[in-house]
Amino acid sequence: MAVPDVSGRSLADLLSLSGRRALVTGGAKGIGLACARRLAEAGARVAVGDLDKAEAQQAAATLDGDAIGLALDVRDTASVDAAVEQVRTELGGLDILVNNAGVFPIMPVLETTDEQWEKVLGTNVDGGFRCARAAGRAFAEAGTGGVIVNLASIQSFRATAPGLTAYCTSKGAVLGLTQSLALELGALGVRVVGVAPTVVDTPGLALNKPVYEAAGLSDVIAAFSAQLPLGRAAVPDDVARVVLFAVSDLAVLVSGTTLVVDAGHLTL
């Protein structure tokens, strides 16, 4: 299925997601919630998926338009398949998947247990695959194409700090997953795009605060911001706006690549 030439459409029309249905994993807070807000603002009907169903429903209640919140554990195939089916049933279909759910604990490699390693890889890589597979099957059945966005990281390209071996490995794998999915699903009219942010000020970042403080970084955001060419770290909406571009028809010929949102971090 060839994607259309959209040269004759207006910018407003190309950016609009009216009539489309989106699932955002890990959508109850942080980058996921920011993405859900921007997609809803652009006209999509959004499903917020999260481990905590109550938080997902609370987040959905804050969005524009017709949004739903649902329980989703990306490490469980049955949960993923059930969530996608729920989206198709309650929203009438699925057009967009934002693979945002992820974990990023800081742990020295020599102290990392098998269970910790498997949790990071199982969430960030296997979870993304499970969601993409379920969404891809839905896209194939509908026959109308679709878009998958995988949240990668600057750590996908190079390790920038100690204690992130599991995380860097997982996010490096996201690049390969993005390219392979784009190659295999392109014939179905499905685009797959990665988005790789620098450090982002999120609730999840606060979970590692004791580790930062032990390393002498009482304010990790200020420490990162001081070295970045553009002068500040990212906030969730910086990433969400790029995700919105990626899923919109402005990016109709963008697939298999990863868009970096890093304030120049990778130039250092």
TrEMBL record:
Gene3D superfamilies: NAD(P)-binding Rossmann-like Domain. Keywords: Oxidoreductase. Pfam families: adh_short_C2 (PF13561). InterPro entries: KR_dom (IPR057326), NAD(P)-bd_dom_sf (IPR036291), Sc_DH/Rdtase_CS (IPR020904), SDR_fam (IPR002347). Residues 20-196 form the Ketoreductase domain. Belongs to the short-chain dehydrogenases/reductases (SDR) family. PANTHER family: OXIDOREDUCTASE, SHORT-CHAIN DEHYDROGENASE/REDUCTASE FAMILY (AFU_ORTHOLOGUE AFUA_5G02870), SHORT-CHAIN DEHYDROGENASE_REDUCTASE FAMILY PROTEIN. This is SDR family NAD(P)-dependent oxidoreductase. It comes from Pseudonocardia eucalypti.
